[in-house]
UniProtKB/TrEMBL annotation:
It comes from Parasitella parasitica. The gene is PARPA_00963.1 scaffold 1357. Residues 133-392 form the Protein kinase domain. Pfam families: Pkinase (PF00069). This is Protein kinase domain-containing protein. InterPro entries: Kinase-like_dom_sf, Prot_kinase_dom, Ser/Thr_Kinases-Pseudokinases. Gene3D superfamilies: Transferase(Phosphotransferase) domain 1.
Length: 499
């Protein structure tokens, strides 16, 4: 071992020792000031002193550790990250005992905390005291639960963190279970209990860009590029493939349940997820479906729900990513007394989008095949999309026909919405609802696509799309759209759609 290797080894060991020292100091601080961290049921504070002053002093000590040893101090990794680790349920249980941690937990959260340990999420999750939250604003409802935006101000960080708080009931256990089996919980960070209402709440990372529907609805449109769009579809397919590999069905896939965070996409809301083998029996037994139109697959009306039903929902989204159609309230479909016939057909119509490469058309058509057995699996979509995405040029703008179609469909929908609202009042966006199997509206006749009625074959698909893609790349280079997002914005504004 040469001198350079010895220096590297020494630096690593020294850095590990400084991290251990910081951990010990943080633990001592928590034990001295348990109330500030929501752990006063675990420790009895003795001579706590002035917490902010002592915390500032500890921060200076840690900085001095690094400076005195000629090591770079990084605020995030050398301070904030270690705090979060020490407050995670895993480290708390290792330091003070699992039973003691559960017993010291707020009575409303005990059951959920036990499940966090059972599912192995304790290294990611922590308890957040209610005093850390401020500026809470209602932002909507996810499933049957209210969702709030808030600022979280941990005492060890100067800048507050934007988070969302979701009121939950016992179904949180199902959501915790699904996340542990299928995804690294990047969004779900822990639990808190509202002091005024006693509601148990999930603490989640606030999405930087809202949900996928927000993203598709924004003007001027920001993703008129096939490379970007196929990357989005690939990420969503990976999410579903992970879930299905764990033997689970999501049962409520739609754009508002897809959060956009740091240019990545995550499926959320697993409250109604069920094991794949039980999904059909649960649907048949309850004779009900909790979902959103038109994302509900046609076979569900017959009491059949499989992983291919999730694929159908994804197929609608794949079509939406290029059509930019945002579906209005299902009241439009349910209103049997509409006197302005044709609205539902115009608002919910799913048809071939002109100007797209054949392989893209074939992609969403295959996901929307009427018979579930003819649709691809999520794993097959991943395999195929990795090839497609990799073979695409760095930028493949959508053709003029596509952007013209977007403008036309939005004008069409907006016009009918204005007519409908004059008769029935304001029409909200499409929402998730509970339907019985007998009253869930059929949307099959709105899907006007050239189905093959043949099973999906990934090998044949790969050969087909490689040839087609090479041809389309060359064609798109020659006929690159001259319509820009700003042009679309101007067209929509002229058509009075920005209302």
């Amino acid at each position: 071992m040469n001198d350079q290797e010895l220096d590297i080894l020494y630096t690593q060991q020294l850095n590990e020792e400084l991290v251990l020292q910081t951990r010990r100091k943080i633990n001592q601080f928590i034990e001295t000031h348990p109330q500030s961290f929501g752990l006063d049921a675990l420790f009895t504070a003795s001579n706590p002193g002035n917490m902010p002053e002592e915390l500032a002093k500890l921060y200076q000590e840690v900085c001095a550790y690094y400076n005195n040893n000629v090591l770079q101090f990084d605020h995030v990794w050398s301070w904030s990250f270690i705090w979060r680790q020490q407050l995670a349920y895993k480290n708390l249980a290792e330091n003070y005992g699992l039973e003691q941690i559960v017993n010291a937990t707020h009575v409303r959260a005990k059951k959920a905390v036990k499940q966090i340990y059972v599912e192995g999420l304790d290294q990611y999750m922590q308890w957040f005291p209610w005093t850390w939250f401020s500026s809470m604003q209602f932002i909507g409802a996810g499933g049957f639960s209210a969702v709030y935006a808030a600022l979280m101000s941990p005492p060890y960080d100067v800048e507050p963190v934007k988070v969302s708080l979701k009121v939950v009931d016992d179904k949180i256990l199902n959501e915790i279970s699904v996340q542990s089996k299928a995804f690294l919980p990047l969004l779900f960070q822990g639990l808190t209990v509202c002091e005024s209402t006693g509601d148990l709440m999930m603490v989640m990372k606030m999405s930087n860009d809202g949900n996928l529907e927000d993203h598709m609805q924004q003007l001027p449109l920001g993703d008129l590029d096939l490379k970007t769009i196929t990357g989005t579809i690939l990420r969503l397919s990976v999410n579903l493939a992970d879930l299905h590999k764990a033997g689970l069905c999501h049962r409520n896939v739609h754009p508002r349940n897809i959060m956009c965070t740091d240019s990545d996409y995550f499926l959320v809301d697993y409250r109604f997820s069920t094991p794949s083998k039980e999904s059909s029996s649960v649907t048949a037994l309850t004779k009900a479906v909790y979902g959103r139109l038109p994302y509900i697959a046609p076979e569900i009306k017959r009491g059949v729900y499989t992983e291919k039903s999730d694929i159908y929902s994804l197929g609608i989204i794949i079509w939406q990513l290029v059509s930019k159609v945002i579906f209005p309230s299902p009241d439009v479909l349910l209103d049997a007394h509409s006197t302005h016939g044709g609205f539902a057909e115009n608002a919910y119509r799913i048809e071939p989008v002109p100007g797209l490469p054949d392989w893209y058309q074939k992609l969403y058509v295959s996901c929307l095949e009427p018979k579930p057995e003819n649709r691809p699996t999520a794993a097959e979509l991943c395999e195929l999309l990795q090839i497609i995405h990799g073979n695409l040029e760095l930028s493949v703008p959508l053709a003029r026909e596509v952007t013209e179609y977007i403008v036309a469909r939005r004008a069409e929908v907006a016009d009918h919405l204005r007519t409908y609202s004059k008769i029935k009042g304001i029409v909200s966006a499409s929402t998730t609802r509970l339907y019985t199997l007998t009253n869930v509206p059929s949307t099959e006749h709105y899907v006007m696509l050239p189905f093959s009625n043949n099973p999906f074959n990934v090998s044949e698909w790969q050969q087909y799309q490689i040839v087609q893609q090479q041809h389309q790349n060359a064609l798109l280079q020659q006929t690159q759209s001259t319509i820009t997002p700003s042009d679309i914005f101007a067209s929509l504004e002229a058509a009075h759609l920005l209302v």
